[in-house]
Amino acid sequence: MTHLRSLLALVVALVAQTAFAQPVFRAGAFAQDISPTKFPVPVNGSVKGNFAQGITDPLHARCLALNDGKHELILCVVDACMIPREVCEKAKELASAKTGVPASHMLISATHTHSATTLASVFQSDADPEFVAAVRERIAQGLIQAHANLEPAEIGWGKGSDPHDVFNRRWLMMEGESYANPFGVTADRALMNPGYQNPKVSKPTGPIDPDVFILVARAAGDHRPIAVLANYSLHYVGGLAPLSADYFGAFAREIGARLGAGDARYGGKPAFVGIMSNGTSGNINNVNFGGKSPAKQEPGEKIRKVAASVADAAMKAYEQIQFKPQAALGSAEEDLTLAVRKPTKEELVRANDLLATTPKDKDGQFAARDAIYARESVKLDAYPDTVPVKLQAHRIGDLSLAAIPCEVFVEIGLDLKERTPFAGHFTVSLANGYDGYLPTTEHHALGGYETWRARSSYLEVPAAEKITARLMALLAKLKEQQR
Fold it and tell me: How far apart are CA 237 and CA 235, in angstroms?
């Protein structure tokens, strides 16, 4: 009887210990090559369709899976200019069926390299359906493999700063100066990329965001680096022939080298994955138009310099991280219905007249800007009157993350950082779909390229304010769950 009582007490103790044991935090990462194998292939990034004849550096879907013992979150950043919603949805569906992770707990975003294979048909670059179908499967495989690579891990985040590589690209026109936009209107007060020291402009129309956020996972035992997911509000750099992952890919390689992730002592373990996500860079680029025109650089030289500079900031943040053995995860997702800015009947008449009278180049494309936007007006007329815009908010311990399917203006990202109920925050743009530029109402009033109605900019004027309000509600919901 005494033996039976002792055995029963031991079982009760073990059950109690198991019930109150801290769940094991796990992380896994994987970089899935998504480069095409057939050429030429269409390339996004210009109002005229471009084509790549080969690969300068490969394109990847870089994935990081996190699991707190109850919930899992998989973050994926794809070397693409933009990704249509249907591609993201199908990849998530395939991955969810294999992993059991809900699609709402997956985030798929584009880097916005302007030298990747076209996935979203914008302006005069149309996607290859065969490649689009193949890339959905490859992205899904990356998500699945990151999940399969889950292992006990520690997690941490930090923030560095690199103000040297970001500049607001929208400039205010001087009093008395004007220019005609593609719709024949001369009221626009903002001019994108005005050229170096242009006397017709006075100052940038807005701020920058110099923050370099990093989310870091490392193995619990040997502290082997598993992944670094960074976030920086820089549109892209450019300077290499397509296909290229631009500075996003260069940063991934650079941060891995800085951390010694290829060290022989880690042999046989899953490879380290460096990831750079695009922050709120809709009105930000890498060109200082207030300065002098720089000297000509070798192909890829600027990309390498920017990648090294941002890696410097990331490493300073890394050195300050206090890693934790656990961080509770949470996700909230919602579709917000927004109106589409469509052309009026009169604007459609003008557009069709332009298309009928404007000659095309020998490549079968329009060179005249007015005709290019006329074509966009006709394309937009076929859009529905409203569209669902997928918004996500995630939390990783005391860090929050928002995801918006747009080229988000920097003011919006700064506002979310200021008002988040969590200790830290960053926003991932071009996430879970593509719904064009997201200027604020004030920027719509200034006009300029990012506001011009096209498949690259079509949401209703107050869209930014509605999106911000809904994201704040989602973040508040996650904070309430934390209590």
Answer: 7
3-state helix, strand, coil in the chain (%, to 5): 30, 25, 40
- Burial profile 183-201: b = 16 or more Cβ within 10 angstroms, e = fewer: beeeebbbbbebeeebeeb
Q: How far is CA 95 from CA 69, 88, 171, 229, in A?
A: 19, 11, 43, 20
DSSP string, 302-352: HHHHHHHHHHHHHHHHHTT---BS---EEEEEEEEEEEB----HHHHHHHH
Residue 268's pLDDT band (cuts 50, 70, 90): confident
Buried/exposed 136-145: b ≥16 CB within 10 Å, e otherwise: bebbbbbbbb
Which residue type does 331 have? S
- Report residue 444 as tokens: 């719509």
The predicted structure's pLDDT at residue 263: 61
**Number of neighbouring beta carbons within 10 Å of residue 130:** 11
pTM greater than 0.85: yes
Residue ranges of domains in the chain: 26-168+203-288+301-338+383-482, 343-381
Please tell me the number of Cα atoms within 13 Å of 429 on its side-chain side.
34
Q: Residue 292: is it exposed, middle or buried by C-beta count within 10 angstroms (0-12/13-18/19+)? A: exposed
Preceding peptide of 8 cis, ω within 30°: no
Distance between CA atoms of residues 479 and 483, nearest Å: 7
Q: Quick check: 11 pLDDT over 50? A: no
How many other C-beta atoms lie within 10 A of the C-beta of residue 38? 9
